[in-house]
Amino acid sequence: MTGNRNEIEGNLRLHVDRLAGLIGPRTLQKPQTIQATIGYIEGQWAEMGYTNDRECYDALGDEATNLIVEQPGSNRANEIVLLGAHYDTVCSTPGADDNASAVAVLLEVSRLLREHTGKRTARYVAFACEEPPYFNVDAMGSQHHARRLHPGWLVCMEHPDASLNQLPPILFGSLRIDLDQHSLIGCVADQVQRFGIRGVVSVYVYLDA
Length: 209
Prior knowledge:
- With 209 residues, the chain is α/β, with parallel strands linked by helices.
- The protein has five helices and eight strands.
- It has an eight-stranded mixed beta sheet with strand order 1-2-4-3-5-8-7-6.
- Helix 1 packs across helix 3.
- Residues 160-209 have low confidence and may be disordered.
- One of its GO terms (biological process) is proteolysis.
- This is Aminopeptidase YwaD.
C-alpha cells in the first residue's frame, strides 16, 4: 500500500476534524449527529467511486446502521478480508481518538486501495453502536455483523492510544502495514473476540505514532 505521505496525513486530519470537530459527539441519542456522520462517510466513499450498502438493525429500540462497501476479489471472491472501525462515541465526547481516528484510517485505506483488485474480496465496514450502553451486548454493530459472517479475516481499528498491556489471553493473529514512517500495528483486543469466537481470524489495529 503506497501513497503520498503529505496527502495521506492531510486526509486523515481532515476526516478527524470533520467527525470530531464539526459533528462532535455521535450517539443515537443525538440522531442528527448520526445522520451527519453517515452522510459524511457515504459521501467520502461515493467520491472514491464506491456504492455502499446500509445494514440497518434494532439497537435497544432505536435504528442503527452499519455502512459497508466491498471490492470483489479476482478469483477467491467468496473469501473476505474485513476492515472495520466504529463511528459512534461515548456520550458528550467528540471522540477524536475513540474513534474518529480509526474511521479516518478506514476511509483512507479504502481510498488507497480503491483501484487494487486482490484475490480475496475486501470489505470495509463502519460500525454503529460500539460504546455504552451498547458495548458487549447484541446491539453492538460489530456483534450484529459478526452473526452473518463465515470464517475469514477481520481487521478492527480502535483509538491510537490502545495499550499492548491490555491484550486478552487469546491471540488470533497480528498484522503490520508499513506506510512511510508510520505503521499500523496489529494486536488482538476484546472488541474483536466476538469474531474470533465465530471462527473469524481477528486482528486489532492501533496507530503507532
